[in-house]
Design a protein that fits this description.
globular; mainly alpha
């Protein structure tokens, strides 16, 4: 993007393009969102990005809310609308046409092969998202311990993630993290 471009046009271009590569949903694009928002555009700090992610996860609704919050921090309500529509619009159009193509493919094997190939890609992108968020959210040994504990609990139990987020929020509010 041109450095003279308006913040709204930068948001539209960035999230419109990103939406087409977010295999597995908005959370799989977290590393790229972080790179653009923190490292390239300097819209926010690491800590602000982690806070925006936490707010998006705690809020009811789709995971794409992080895009809305980034857009809002860049250009207010207009930025929030531009970023959200740009992240959802192109992906929705692409999904529509791909679903029509898949419906016409009948009993062909290639759709199942493509879907199976996208599973490890999606898992890898989400793992990268977790790594980026762990790095940007806190650098203390207590934060690392809480992260590892939350990951272990998520893996080993059926505990609702809300309770882990609430616990982490309480520790952060208390100044422990």
């Amino acid at each position: 993007m041109n450095s003279n471009a308006s913040p709204i046009s930068t948001l539209v271009w960035t999230f419109g393009l990103m939406s087409l590569f977010a295999v597995g949903g908005a959370n799989s694009a977290i590393p790229e969102m972080h790179r653009i928002a923190v490292d390239v555009q300097h819209w926010m700090s690491d800590r602000q990005f982690a806070d925006v992610f936490a707010i998006a996860q705690l809020s009811p609704g789709p995971n794409v809310l992080i895009v809305t919050l980034i857009g809002y921090s860049v250009a207010g309500v207009a930025g929030a609308l531009a970023a959200t529509l740009s992240m959802c619009g192109p992906a929705a159009v692409l999904a529509y046409y791909v679903s029509r193509l898949l419906a016409r493919s009948g009993g062909a094997r290639w759709p199942a092969m493509i879907q199976a190939a996208l599973v490890p890609v999606s898992i890898g992108l989400m793992a990268a998202s977790g790594l980026i968020l762990a790095r940007s959210s806190g650098q203390s040994w207590v934060a690392a311990l809480v992260t590892v504990l939350a990951a272990a609990l998520a893996f080993a139990t059926r505990l609702n993630p809300f309770w882990m987020l609430l616990g982490g929020g309480i520790l952060g509010f208390a100044g422990v993290i």
